[in-house]
User: What shape does this take?
Amino acid sequence: MSSEIQYARLGLSSVRKEHEGMLKRHSIWILVTFLLLLTGCSSPAQNVISVSTKSPTNGPTATATPIPPIPTVGSIPRNCPTSNSTHQVFSQLAPVTGRTPVWATWSPGSSVFREGPVTTSNPPTNYDPAYGWEISKIVWEVGPNYTHTITIHGYGLSNHTPVLIQVGNDTPTANAVLDPHNPDHPVSVLGDGWAEWGSYLVVPKAGCYGLDVSWPTGHWTLTFAFGA
Assistant: This one.
């Protein structure tokens, strides 16, 4: 009787152990399944289709503004009636042309301005597509103690093509005005009683040109040529 009881107890014990093992294995599978599900939710998807958010461009494509070509300078016309009337009137200035009350610095000689060869590898720095060729710098002196305005008019001798005068930072114009009450320079190199301006002479192309400088009681004129 005791041996049958002992055998029964041993059998029950083995059944209990086997049952406990099944529970452990089942718990492990549940845990593994849970971890796999958790990993799948938190990991980034591998097969992701990238979609561009750039909006379509149906409008015109922006292009750079083309730079106008630099024109070839024509030859200096023959028989231009150029002035040759500069004088060393003031020790503080370069040679000048004109007479009282207005004087202008001017290149000595036959008043012919030549432009060198124009190439794309060596473009000129004195050409502006809007106005033309800047050929000379001129300093104007008005005085002494003169208060009326001076008018400067530039023109082509054969077809009245405008010659432009740019006084200071003003827009180039074919009819510049010098007002002694508003000089471009704060002081004149000639001293008190004189008004002074700096300017540039601009022509559109090769040709024969003239400048007429006038005031209420008089005027003077000079002529010059420009070309290659």
